[in-house]
Design brief:
By secondary structure, this protein is mainly alpha-helical. The chain has one domain (2-126). It is 85% helix and 0% strand.
Length: 127
């Protein structure tokens, strides 16, 4: 049953983290409607910080949620690292394939791994 807990933990953690990303993106796009895809590259580099700040917040919160939930369900901190790592990997692909400001990328590159570590550690301590 242990392997089932680990697999379920990673899948559920990843799914909930993905939900946080989607919710954060939807909220940000509702508050600050983005331009057309053709105009995005220029907009991303010139947009005011407040128009994009919810994106790294959502990405970092999602990494934390994925790691915490996975580690809690699996009862293994490393399961949280896996779920958070998969989610953060997907985030990094997004950040480097679609134009984003350097400050946003820097926040995510530093913040997401720290959030994964904190989420998995907190789940282990709370057990």
């Amino acid at each position: 049953m242990t392997i089932v807990r680990i697999i379920v933990g990673v899948v559920v953690g990843f799914a909930l983290g993905l939900g946080v990303v989607i919710g954060g993106d939807l909220l940000n796009h509702t508050l600050f409607p983005p331009p057309t895809p053709e105009q995005w590259a220029e907009y991303a580099l010139t947009a005011p910080v407040q128009n994009l700040i919810l994106l790294p917040v959502a990405y970092i919160l999602a990494a934390f949620v994925a790691a915490f939930v996975a580690a809690k369900i699996a009862r293994r901190a490393w399961a949280g690292w896996i779920a958070g790592g998969f989610l953060t990997g997907a985030t990094f692909v997004n950040l480097f394939t679609i134009a984003h400001p350097i400050w946003l990328i820097a926040i995510c590159v530093v913040g997401a791994p720290l959030a994964i570590w904190c989420g998995a550690l907190l789940a282990r301590r709370a057990a």
